[in-house]
Fold this protein.
Amino acid sequence: MGFYLNAMDSLNSYYEEYSSPYFVDKSLMLEDLSGRIRTNTKYVCITRPRRFGKSVTANMIASYYSRAGNAQSLFSNLKISEKKMHREYCGQYDVIFISMNEIPRRCENYSQYIERIESRLLKDLIKAYPDAEIGREDAIWDAFKVVYDTYNSRQFIFVLDEWDFIFHKDFVTDTDKASYIMFLSNLLKGKAYVALAYMTGILPISKYSSGSELNMFLEYTMATMELYSDCFGFTDEEVDILYDKYLRLQPNPKISREGLKIWYDGYQTPGKTRMYNPRSVVAALKNNQLAGYWTSSGPYDEIFYYINHNVAAVRDDLARMVAGTAVLANVQEYAASSMNLTTRDEIFSAMVVYGFLSFGNGRVSIPNKELIEVLRDTL
């Protein structure tokens, strides 16, 4: 077990989630991911707004496949254990799990950031695979290839959480961004040692990479792709179950079931399923109080700029939405690769991706009271 290789962090984090009284089993997602291993669909990037369970899911994936710990014991009580493929995949892989939002102490530039990742990976590989002739100055993708060649075609599952984090740091230049995209391409694209590559973040790859560097990834956004829609967020049925637990556990319940719906429901998936913000629901039940738990902190400065300056009359339309009126918009036309949003539809589409708005039946709306409170403060 190393720093990134078969580390126990993800298993411990997922076990803590599993031990929560308000845990929701999303493990059936692993059946689809397992079917992608060693196929031409093995590159998956799923993007969701903040506080929508991305890291919980990343920890689940890493802990399920990793040889570290006792994954069979943990997952034996979850839905995935009922599937035929379970024993074939559970605990059977070397997993590289990297939280890309971790930076070195006193990090001042991109070189320090990426060198930490590369050096830690090299140390893990040198320690775990002593028969592989890996040099400390080797490129990390060369080191993985040496392991693959030396250890009977040993393959890895890569799980990269918050893959786009670095783009939102002030010290990162446009040249750095291009270098980072190339780093991911050199590490993952077309490599025989990759059994599965799973990345998650807030924004899609196409927003940052207009070339072919990462075109092997299949992208699943909240706005356009139905697959995996029920894996992030809580359905009505799941919230019903959690609310029943809340009534049993809380001696003095102050939250109504309708209150949860008003405050946290309303995110609509492309498959027309309405979803609740998972973090907010759990926080409300634990605190026995309805409140705004979804934070607007993050890479949203450009969105607030468009609102505050009423670009393309966006501010006026948001005021209508705060009052309860849905507004016509063409979210499908959003040019995700654009760093500068110039039209009303592009701005609203970005707000759907960020989680500020919900889209359905050709209209955008503010999904719930929690988000109404967040956006009202900007108007």
The chain has three domains: 9-220, 235-287, 301-376. The two ends are 50 Å apart (CA to CA). Confidence is low (pLDDT under 50) at residues 333-337.
